[in-house]
Amino acid sequence: MLGATGMVGQIYVQMLSRHPWFEIRAVTGNSTVGKTLGEAYRGKGHVPEKYADLEVLPSDPAKIDADLVFSCLPTKAAREVEPKFAAAGFPVVSDSSAHRYLPDVPLIIPEVNPEHLDLIDVQRRRRGWDGYIVTTPNCTTVGFALPLKPLADDFGLKHVNVVTMQAVSGAGYNGVPSMAILGNIIPYIEGEEAKVSEEPRKILGKLVDSEVKPLDITVDATCMRAPTIVGHLEAVQVELSRDVPLEEVVASLAGFTGLPQKIELPTAPRRPIRVFSEEERPQPRLDSDAGEVPGMVISVGRVRKGKRPGTAMFVTLSHNLIRGAAGSAILTAELLYALRRLD
Ligand SMILES: NC(=O)c1ccc[n+]([C@@H]2O[C@H](COP(=O)([O-])OP(=O)(O)OC[C@H]3O[C@@H](n4cnc5c(N)ncnc54)[C@H](OP(=O)(O)O)[C@@H]3O)[C@@H](O)[C@H]2O)c1
After folding, report:
1. Is the pLDDT of residue 150 over 80?
2. Would you say the CB of residue 324 lies under 6 angstroms from ligand 1?
3. Strand partners, 166
């Protein structure tokens, strides 16, 4: 686990302490190198006993013995470190944005585009690596890109507009000064809107001749930081390719399942989207942990039709540290294991 002592890293530590397939063998960090994970831990509750004495190491492949690497390093460190691990033969599943947009790097939501994992072969061939890098989307992207999948498949999609209210944990442990955010909303997050506009096109795209052909849609995004701790709330408006009755939109969202559900991966919720009928839901405090695998369900509410034919509106909520990061990466790794790509 690279970056195990950060906001996202500490969620991995919790999730992997009770995982049926994976065990943490080593953890890395930066300012906490040399401490034990127990001493460096700043997360909720206590560090699980079995991992408390692991020493925080520098992110050096020569010092690590493992079958798989999870990386939640900051972008700059990830850009440098992850290729070293891939070149040294490690499969790397990364939450960082450093390699997400490269044409030979899969950007995966396991329910949406598992077939894009075939890019691994292209990547290995082109780069001469024994290992590889697979990435997960930005924590904001996943909250609306996953619900877009059934809508795109069932009705066709032309345009998406999303306005986000993102929790402070999304900015990392030292992310936003408390005096800037308490009792306030900041209507700008550096670099976020470009990521959120581009990523769904790649994720929903088709793999043709060793390349992802992005889905032909446009996405406009306005990203704001809100004074909530966990859970990104997003107001989404979609323009579908045809006018669709409201009940069909709801049924399409609520009924959606993907490969992780079919093959019953341990971290896959039974249904990845929960649709609320109550007008005042979902809410970050009440619903971020939704589902039998807490934090892995995308909650959708306020589904309604827009004034223009073919438009639909809804609100989504996703746990930014679980479905938006650690949980997504663990589910992706489970898929790699099930598809025999972790040998
Ligand atoms: N927070 C979210 O909701 C979220 C969601 C999706 C993706 N992400 C992405 O996940 C990554 C981590 O985010 P975070 O929120 O967990 O950040 P964070 O709280 O700032 O944690 C950063 C982690 O990386 C380590 N680190 C920093 N610089 C390093 C270096 N040069 N070499 C090795 N390790 C280094 C830190 O170690 P020390 O503690 O020892 O200094 C810490 O463990 C980022 O790329 C972020 O964009 C975050």
Report:
1. yes
2. yes
3. 225
